[in-house]
Amino acid sequence: MGRALRARLGHGAIVIVLVVSACFTLIRLAPGDPFFRDLDAARLSADQRAAQRAAFGYDRPIPEQFVRYVGQVARGELGWSHSRSQPVAAALAATLPATLLLIAVATLLAFSVGIPLGAWMGWRAEEPLARAVDRVAVLVLAVPEYLLALLAVMGPALAWGLFPIGGMRTEFGPRGFAGLLDVAHHLTLPALALALPVAAMTARLQRAAMRATRDHAFVRTSRAKGGDDRLARRHALRAALVPVLSYAGVHLAVAVSGVVVIERIFAWPGMGRLLFEGVLARDYPLVAGGVLVASVGTVLGTLVADLALRWADPRQQELR
Amino acid sequence: MSGRSGRRFDRGTLLTVGGIVVLALAGPALAPYAPTEALDPQRLAWQPPSGAHLFGTDGFSRDVLSRFLAGARHTLGVALLASGVALLLGTAVGLGAALTGGWRESLLMRCTDALLAMPRLLVLLLVVTGTGALRLDALALVLGATGWMTTARLVRQETRRLLATDALRGAIVLGVPPARLVTHHLLPALAPTLAVAATGAFASAVPLESGLSYLGLGVPTPLPSWGNIIAEAESDLLRRWWVVVFPTAAIIGTVLLANRVADRVASQGSDS
Fold it and tell me: In chain B, which residues have their Cβ closer than 8 Å to the Cβ of A302?
């Protein structure tokens, strides 16, 4: 246990270092300075530009800049967002909770629907209804995320008018417990939209795993020992959870991408919308900081999913 | 060629693939109007489908059918070029990792992990922030450069498996030089894997382009693409359904088709 775990943690640490390097490379790859171009560039004299470059350390050699960048990131300094006139870290921190709430609820929703649904589909793979549901899941996965959100979630919501279609709370709305309900009310649609493709993917993976496990000897043994169908199904499910849990880690990177689109559609005041506005304002430090935070978060999430995997399937501990 | 693939794929799949290729090649020639021409912004904006405009018109009174036909080339071309770039990069990294081994392999694969952990859309947004709207070829390159990691993993895994087979070990023992080993022994054996990886990359690039176009950061207007035709409808998707329905169906159909081809190739590979 100890050694495999240490190796996995070391692996995670290396990946984080590489992610930070990749972010630095992306920042440096930007042609010219990330700070002044287009309209501003014309109004700045060469002296002023040089002064600004020096102030932000852009006149230093690349290796020195890299070391400084790593030092800043380690201290949580991500630079200055010129479109919001505040530190990038503060801007991100202000919007991160809303995004984490959205991702957490959507993930919970997706897995609590996808796993049982997929297990049922796999257990009864030959029945027409299970096959039909699988077809629907395939179709859902082929639809671009924003169209799914607009057509499958926004459309009915507009037609029935049951849920607010934008924002996180009612302005000047209730506080306390009623305020929480208000947030939940606003959260329903974006969470559904974000969860739908993940649920479809989870269900399909769970179905395949369940189908493969169903015919294993240990499931037959459980039946032969006189255990009922439910018990056999439970044994099979625990073994069949493995590929789904390993998907949970990968899913995070996809979900973070989805958040940008979903938050824009439902005007959810999270990091995705902040970053999109950053793109429009050409606020390079802000977007770069967002990419860094999201990537490191994804690595950590994958790590947690991996550890959960070890718990679910002791066989994994001997591998690698 | 056609005889062999006739056994691999059923007629419907082949016909649809052919139809899409024709659409991409001949699309603009089939268009009844110029795809970027505003016909009559006063009277012809947001016209529902009719005899004169089978797919209706958009907010600038442009003919949606013409834009749809001309857009096929941009959407499919960008996705095709992107998957080509992804295939090239992924194969190089995957082969390189599997062949070198040791710390080089670890480093290459950890880099792959790191890039895989970076949300693709965010990286694309970062690039667009730096450069402004991208030209078509640049868009395809960037899509490819952010989409090769799964291919690299697949190729590395399959190469490692192949290197352990008797045929490859024999070739190595006989002193086949590394370059020849790659071109004459590994790449032919990798072909099914590469086909699966390429169709997978294609299937992910099509919706991604349309998503970027929806955010206004994909194929630059007024050039049509399936994604930015849909984006024209803005928030009124349901009332202006004709702008949305046809490109959406085309995108979904293309992705389903690519998945189907990948499935077929994959099962073919496991049979033989």
Answer: 117
